[in-house]
Fold this protein.
Amino acid sequence: MPGRAARTTALAAVIAATVVSMPSAHAQPADDALKVYNDLTREAETLSQDHLKAQSDLSRANGIVVAATEAEKKALAESEQFRGQVDTLTEATFEGARLNDLSAFLTSTSQQDFLERMQAMNIIAADQNEAVSRMSATLAAATKARTDAATAASAADKLAGEVSTRKVAMDQQVTVARNKLQSLTAPQRQTLANPGTKVPVGSVNVPAGAAGAALNFALGEQGKPYVFGSNGPNSWDCSSLMQAAYRAAGVSIPRVTYDQAKVGRGVGRGEVAAGDLIIYYAGQSHVAMAVDGTRAVHASTEGIPVKIANIDSIGPISVIRRVVG
């Protein structure tokens, strides 16, 4: 996502100052303390998604390196095969008399013999030209594959550094958020940990097909904890819960919110239906799944279990995506 690198650098630069200047929970009204915690966890969640995205990009780059390297090996093997064919045909043209028009004429014993020699010469020449052409094509393919592999390897090296940078920034911000959580009063932590009213699986009028199956999975995860970067099954972050829900329904969607914001097709707020993915904030760093037109199930942040919330209370909506249908 544009701006992730700048955001990471800026946040990394102010994290230390945030830790030092952050007021204690006892010096703040309860609502202010919870707001500070929510702001800190939102920043941590953004950095977590950034880190996951960088990991995904690195994995793809490494996959390109492997594929390009294999393509080069295959092309070189094929070129050697055609090289052998060229060598064989070349040797054939020099067996006995040279196979050109004059030698065919001088060595032929009759008109028919001359025609047969000319036909044989043309066949060998055509086969040799084809073999040379195919060998050249495979060598060109091998050269391109080698260039592609080198380019992909360079990109992967760069991404590996980016993954490390984002991991440091994420870990620092997560630590700030977790320290803030521990500084909250017991009643404040209880407020966050309140699972609310659970919606039993099967009690919602879910649509048939994958959307309904995904929603039933997500509803079945209510009460499980949120952990930054977790992939389940005992804890989740916001996007891993959505991915697992649709995976359970037989549909593959990307791991991070930025990519989930592109799946399926967009729908308006008034069209939202069960199973739709609702992406929040301008940076598209959080996601929930619609239960119906007014409620959504989501993994909010650490200290808060997977729960049902009003769609519009979660945050400002960026996009709504219908994964299937």
